[in-house]
């Protein structure tokens, strides 16, 4: 059993999650991968083809689609929200730029439970538009799912296509990520890993997006809604570790993954988290220029360009309840372990096979 397998089996033993899947590797593919546990506490064992709710790991995937549109001249990083969304003209968000939305420096507050008072899509989108700014744009990194909801609307308006189609065509199809979808079908839901016993919905959520605002939006949002498998996330991690091959031109990819908020309290690239100087959710071993994203359901994808390594962690830490912070310790230990693993690929060894 590898150190990662032991670490994640221990996390299940401490009831941080019912199941976990992982992969660590580089441009040539995984060097350590596997899964442990069950899809729910009383459910079947994981089998490696399980479907996971990525939560906010949706954001950088949507960001990749946005940057593909920037590369094609459909969007401009310094163009304003009002340029693309007429309803926003004249409001406090009209002059916000796509760059500010992507770096969470727009001043739009995040983590606002709009769904409670706005249970219909049109009403919730109006609430997002009218949500008052809580910081002067460009002065503070303030994590904002609402900002990414707006970003998704902008991508749709500029490209003339639904967001799920844009993500499919611009990100998933080029990499062969055939199992990465918004709104899983019946076959996908049958393979899905359980998330929360949701008080709002009155049931355990399986195969439906966990994020309540995304539920009201119909399961597709710039901030949340994507589901994926371990295999598909490996394809994405491998591509990112290889410099974004198959996704973006080298210059565009470098711009996207470079830090854009140095001088502010948190480090952000375009749609990616950077490794913060203190309190990073991925520990201390990954390099200062590493980037990635975490998800509330217990997911994460992280890449270190200096060592050309990626790390994928998929868990259902919100099952059956979001209470508890055990994932914080597990996630940091996982990434620190990935950061010091010997690179067996460069030594000519074959990748480790998955196991339960």
TrEMBL record:
Keyword Hydrolase: yes
Keywords recorded for this protein, A-Z: Hydrolase
UniProt superkingdom: Bacteria
Keyword Nucleotide-binding attributed: no
Signal peptide: none
Region described as Disordered: 19-40
Gene3D superfamilies, alphabetized: DD-peptidase/beta-lactamase superfamily
Listed Pfam families: Beta-lactamase
Boundaries of every Beta-lactamase-related domain copy: 5-325
Name of the featured protein: Beta-lactamase family protein
């Amino acid at each position: 059993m590898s150190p990662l397998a032991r670490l994640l089996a221990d996390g299940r033993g401490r009831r941080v999650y019912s199941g976990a899947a992982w992969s660590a590797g580089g441009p040539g593919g995984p060097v350590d991968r596997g899964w442990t546990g069950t899809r729910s506490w009383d459910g079947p064992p994981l089998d490696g083809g399980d479907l996971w709710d990525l939560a906010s790991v949706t954001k950088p995937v949507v960001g990749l689609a946005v940057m593909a549109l920037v590369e094609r001249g459909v969007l401009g990083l310094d163009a304003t929200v009002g340029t693309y969304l007429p309803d926003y003209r004249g409001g406090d968000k009209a002059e916000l730029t796509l760059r500010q939305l992507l770096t969470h420096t727009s001043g739009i507050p995040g983590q606002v439970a709009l769904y409670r008072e706005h249970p219909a899509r049109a009403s919730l989108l109006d609430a997002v538009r009218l949500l008052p700014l809580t910081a002067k744009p460009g002065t503070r990194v303030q994590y904002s799912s609402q900002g990414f909801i707006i970003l998704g609307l902008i991508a749709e308006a500029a490209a003339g296509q639904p967001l799920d189609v844009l993500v499919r065509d611009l990100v998933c199809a080029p990499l062969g990520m055939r199992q990465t979808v918004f709104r899983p079908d019946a076959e996908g839901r049958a393979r899905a890993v359980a998330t929360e016993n949701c008080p709002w919905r009155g049931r355990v959520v399986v195969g439906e997006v966990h994020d309540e605002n995304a539920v009201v939006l119909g399961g597709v949002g710039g901030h949340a809604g994507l589901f994926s498998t371990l295999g598909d996330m490996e394809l994405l991690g491998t591509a990112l570790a290889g410099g974004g091959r198959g996704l973006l031109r080298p210059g565009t990819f470098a711009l996207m993954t470079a830090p854009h908020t140095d001088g502010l309290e948190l480090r952000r690239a375009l749609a990616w988290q950077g490794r913060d100087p203190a309190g990073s959710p991925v520990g201390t071993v990954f390099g200062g220029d590493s980037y990635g994203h975490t998800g509330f359901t217990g997911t994460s994808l992280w890449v270190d360009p200096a060592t050309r390594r990626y790390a994928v962690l998929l868990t259902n830490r919100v099952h059956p309840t979001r209470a508890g912070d055990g994932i914080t310790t597990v996630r940091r230990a996982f990434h620190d372990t990935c950061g010091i693993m010997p690179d067996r690929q460069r030594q000519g060894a074959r990748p480790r096979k998955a196991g339960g």
